[in-house]
Amino acid sequence: MRELPAGHDAVMLDFSGDPAPADAVARATVALRAAQQAGTLHIADVVPSAHTVLVQADRGAGIDTLGVHRALRLDPTDAAAHGSASSQLEVPVVYDGPDLADVARVLGLGTERVVQLHTGILWRVQFMGFAPGFGYLVPDGDEEHPLRDVGRRPESRTRVPRGAVAVAAGYSAVYPRVSPGGWHLLGRTSMTMWDESAVPPARLAPGTLVRFVAQ
User: What InterPro entries does the entry give (predicted)?
Assistant: First the structure.
């Protein structure tokens, strides 16, 4: 892990050199949020991304780097005991996407096997981005999962429908609203991912565990 300065009130933890950066980011996020909830680390926010975690203190408070390092040494079991255990969500999916056959060809598999691969594991929201409610999901604890080998489409679509369930570049996602997109569309869900009238408006959050269920 590299520690990068991010101003007086924040520090960036870079796990890009770790053998499994996604898992390292997940562990760090759980540990830091557990310490925050337990009151042993006074911070305002923890913001994970693909290979980094931004730890943000209250404005003007300064970042407690020693406290950050103590939190990172927290055992994952202890972190769960402090209330940081991830929530789990089941997402119903109709697997009739226009790119399902293409993904099967890329992997040298049948379409039914692709569906089994997508539904047979838990996915973890590593970070949020691109659009409100859009979560980047990675296979939970499986760095060698076959769907990680699926890249982006050669050409992006100008319009991807809301609820489209997709994979690309090692991630899976559900499009929360109509938008352009270059991911492979496997299917669709009727579940709403972003609702401005709800609290919170996003159904997903970093750390949420997701299981896709074929309908």
Answer: CT_C_D, Cyclophilin-like_dom_sf, PxpB
Topology of the domain comprising 2-73 = Gyrase A; domain 2 (3.30.1360)
Rounded CA gap, 167 and 71, in Å?
Answer: 33
Nearest CA to 168 out of 182, 187, 154 is that of 182
Percent of the chain beyond pLDDT 70?
94
In the predicted model, what is the mean pLDDT of residues 117-146? 93
Q: Which of these CATH numbers, 2.60.120.200, 2.40.100.10, 3.40.1080.10, 3.40.50.720, describes 89-214?
A: 2.40.100.10
Q: Which residues lie across from 92 on neighbouring strands?
A: 213
Does this model's pTM top 0.70? My answer is yes
Tell me the C-alpha to C-alpha distance, in Å, between residue 106 and each of 99, 152, 185.
11, 11, 14
